[in-house]
Amino acid sequence: xxxxxxxxxxGVMIAYPEGGSGNPVFTPRxxxxxxxxxxAVPSAKVVFSTTWRLPNYVNxxxxxxxxxxxxxSLAIDGTPxxxxxxxxxxxxxxxxxxxRWLESNPSATRWVVLDDDRMAIEEILxxxxxxxxxxxxxxxxxxxxxxxxxxxxxxxxxxx
Length: 160
Prior knowledge:
By secondary structure, this protein is an alpha/beta fold. The protein is built from five helices and five strands; from the N terminus they run βαβαβαβαβα.
């Protein structure tokens, strides 16, 4: 399977400076950092782990994705929605959604998580596979380089 990038949107592709509000759009600097990863790993595919993958937000995601020139074929899936599962603690939801996707796709051996929600992920997944962004900065060039490094080096499943 192609290398997988689990992609959050808020706080990763969109930087939220303090006091910022309004209509959320991808931050050009964050888009550039993401493009750096894609340029170095052209076989990579995206699995959305963001709430933007859910029905109420997917049109906005689609609009921003296409506005920034990302082909629809780049995104192959979204993680399962575990919001209604009573066995899932809210604080672990994102990490468990990614874990379930990986369990359903065991051939995905090269992957990285780009997310700003450390608490939802760090107790579930191998943190060495995760790039945790600062939501006020979003994905930086340094974050992109770290994500690229992870994709280039890792080959095991990485589940806890």
